[in-house]
Every structure is written in structure tokens, then in C-alpha cells.
Amino acid sequence: MVLIGILYWSMTNKISDEDFAATGWLSTLPDPVRGSVLEKARWRTFGPGDTVYASGAAGNTLWGIGSGTIKMYISAGEEHMRFCHAVGPGYWFGELELLLDLPRVIEMRTAGNARLLCLQEQDLNKIAEEYPALWRAVARLAATNEALAIAAVDDLMLRDPRKRLAATLLRLSGLRWDFQGKRDLPVVPVTLVELAEVANLSRSVAAKLVAEFVAEGMVAKEYGRLRIDRPDRLELVLQS
User: Fold this and answer.
1) From CA 237, how far away is CA 165, in angstroms rounded?
2) Does residue 76 have a pLDDT over 80?
3) Which whole number is the average pLDDT over 218-227?
4) Of 186, 185, 181, 184, whose CA–CA distance to 22 is shortest?
5) Helices 231-239/161-172 angle, 10° precision
6) Which of 8, 41, 114, 164 lies in disulfide reach of 119, CB 3.0 to 4.6 Å?
7) How many CA atoms lie within 13 A of 15 on its CB side?
């Protein structure tokens, strides 16, 4: 049953190429620019647990998710890599290091099978020679991801652990602070350890709160995942 559930989730957690072009950051580009991006970029496939790029790798590509879920990990330098976010179809990433000419500061790994569109820097430069406004669009993409990071920090300063966890689950599912306009992620591939880390809670407190949310019908526990069943009730937790 677990295998069947994983296969079903992998099949449904995707969008068509047409929907991909009409979703999120890519949809904000003028038609000729969007067409050039789709023409020059290349689709790449990944298996479960693959690393799209590691921290410290060269930051010379943009990535867009066509199917699957990508998990983000970050380290302050002295700490181990910690889970910080999850993103699904329609989401674009990789622009920060490309703009700043820095090695990767975030590590991206697949939660399952995934299909990603990869745009190399040299191809982006070629498109920008004809459409210089493309760099402004890339800067706008960076601004949306920066806004998400700032909003996540704001959520982590919620003093009430119950509210902090509710806010974190809504963010992970794409239902809170979605600045890219991508598709939501109703099934979040996160373990209890990862959830405790990303919500800045102890494991015991995270386990207690998850059990409460399950009992109240807001979420359902699956193997290595949480399904968001009643996001409206999670919103009410924040308003209480």
C-alpha cells in the first residue's frame, strides 16, 4: 500500500508542459522570451533522493520544476545541512548564485522522481542579448524567493508553538507566502525530525502537535510525509 501511494503521488504531482509554461515565474515572461527559454532549456530527470545541486557547487543554471518535489537544505556554516523548505511543480530556483556569481548556498534534493527544466547561463545570456529585459525578470524571481525567506523568518518568530507549526505546514504546502504563483503541494515529504527542525521545535513538541493536528482532522500522517487535509483549519489556528 505504501508503494502504491508513492506511485500515485508521483503521477499526480506533475503538470503538463503547457501548464508549466503558464504557471509561476515562466508565465510572467513575454511570449517570445518564454518561447526562447523553452527552446534553449533542456529537461532532465532525477530519481528519488538525487541531489540536483550541492552546497558549494557552481551556480550557473536556472531550474524549473515540471514534476516531483524538491527539498531544500541549508547550513549556516558551522551546522549540518538542515531541511528548510519544499517546492513542487511550477517553482523556479537557482537565480541567487547566478546573479551574485557565487557557489551554491542551498542544497537541492529530490523527494521522489522528478523532471526539471535546466537553463544554462550561456543560453540565458544569448536570450538576453535579444531580450535584455530577461535579466529584470530574473531579478524579479530572486525578489520573490527573498520575500519567501523573509516571510519564513517572520513565521519562525511566532512565540506560540502551535501557531508556528501551523504556519510552517501552510508554507511547506505552498498555501502561505507563495510569491511565484505556482501550484500548491498538498502532500509534504517531511519527516518528524525535519519538521521539528524547520519549525524550530523539539522533536517531542513537534510530535505532540502533529498528533493534535491529526486528531483534529487538519493533517494526515503517511510514510515519510504529511498530507494537508484542512488548510482552512490551520489558518484558524493562526487566527486564534
Assistant:
1) 10
2) no
3) 95
4) 181
5) 140
6) 41
7) 22
Q: Which residues of 103-117 are buried (b: 16+ CB within 10 A; e: fewer)?
A: ebebbbbbbbbbbbb
Q: What are phi and psi of 48, to 5 degrees?
A: -60, 130
Strands 42-46 and 70-74: unpaired
In whole angstroms, give the CA distance from residue 218 to residue 186: 12
Q: If you search the block for the grid coordinates 557552481, which residue do you land on?
A: 58
Tell me what the mean pLDDT of segment 205-217 comes to.
98
Q: How many CB atoms lie within 10 A of CB 206?
A: 22
Q: Which three cell numbers stand for residue 4?
A: 502504491
Q: For all residues of the chain together, what is the average pLDDT?
A: 91
3 contacts: CB under 8 Å, gap ≥ 6:
none
Report residue 75 as a C-alpha cell: 547550513
DSSP state of 20: H
Residue 108 near residue 93, CB atoms below 8 Å: yes
pLDDT digits (tens, 9 = 90+) for 58-70: 999 999 999 999 9
Decide: 189 and 225 in contact? Cβ < 8 Å.
Answer: yes
Question: Is the CB of residue 118 less than 8 Å from the CB of residue 63?
Answer: yes
Residue 7 pLDDT > 70, yes or no?
no
Rounded to 10 deg, the angle between the 31-40 and 121-130 helix axes is 150
Proportion of the chain above pLDDT 70, given as a percent: 93
- Entry pTM: 0.89
Q: Per-residue confidence at 9, pLDDT binned at 50, 70, 90?
A: very low
Cα separation, 99 vs 95, in Å, equals: 6
The size of the chain, in residues, is: 240
**120 vs 83: CA distance, rounded Å:** 26
